[in-house]
């Protein structure tokens, strides 16, 4: 059987790293930049650090391709003068040398004159290259893998100048094409940033709305008036003022708590019954990225039903205690693990949102032990919440909050998709598979 020869598209060439555009090169990063490692720690003393001083950029301050200074990492003008050779210039790339590789950012005019810290390195870009393009190359997962393979350090990788200087990169000869690629990826980043801000805003609105609706401080118009048309009032309770037609109840009065399944590693199988665990609860919805299945006889009590509230009741991380999700039709029939509990109630929608509110979360914080992060069945039964006496009002409040959740989840799905698109764009644009600038002399786009 003859081996089929690879067809190279017009305008491309075969290289040791694969097929790339004819007007792109494989070059060492040292052709396009010079490098300077940040000062040794001994160069700065505790007395040099001041509030409101000149920011020092260490890897922790490089987040998502941007420099985000902290007030505790700033030095006096006098100290900075002694370290003038480590001052950053607009257009430099600052890259972290330790820990997570790929932490790098282009220095803007705002950050001009800031100081490169001990754990960072200055990549000073020459005229023949676009700094924003090289920053994208350095933060590309494939480049990070190459850097990690070539870097020194067993437990903590330390990036040195030699590794960066020798790093092979793909680069368009035309600087305009480099800039176009960087700008396209920057536009996607801007969209991601706007979506993140919108989601945060919607979540803040939901939190404020929960605080008002779940305590009765704000009444829905259809439930706010008495039969004679006068506004309903409020009454004192152990949880503060509540509407006159609400009551304070314990969870034991309106439902039951059921403990989860204990199983051994021998019961785990590739297929079988899904066991819902803490990792299956993400942002108060069910997630299925990290699943465990068991093949064993299961007691009826550990099988979840639609409308059950799945709650994390024991975990090594204190902040995960009390996180919850509502069982939907897709999860109906699954089991749940020993570190989880189910709360089963007719008022499941209203109680589900109470678990997300300060009302129950504050009670969880009060009962949590100093050493063991857990909620017992007795604890759960004793939690108290304000509850509308009319089922219709519970449903109406739940519906409003559920609609908010649906909108937030839709935005989160859009954000996830946009991030995936960005990853695909990086792969296409940084390898030249997709061109944004028409090659000189080419009849093809």
TrEMBL record:
It comes from the Bacteria. Residues 181-208, 401-428 form a coiled coil. GO terms for molecular function: DNA binding. Keywords: Coiled coil, DNA-binding, Restriction system. Pfam families: Methylase_S. Residues 21-205, 243-415 form the Type I restriction modification DNA specificity domain. One of its GO terms (biological process) is DNA restriction-modification system. Belongs to the type-I restriction system S methylase family. PANTHER family: TYPE I RESTRICTION ENZYME MJAVIII SPECIFICITY SUBUNIT, TYPE-1 RESTRICTION ENZYME ECOKI SPECIFICITY PROTEIN. This is Restriction modification system DNA specificity domain protein.
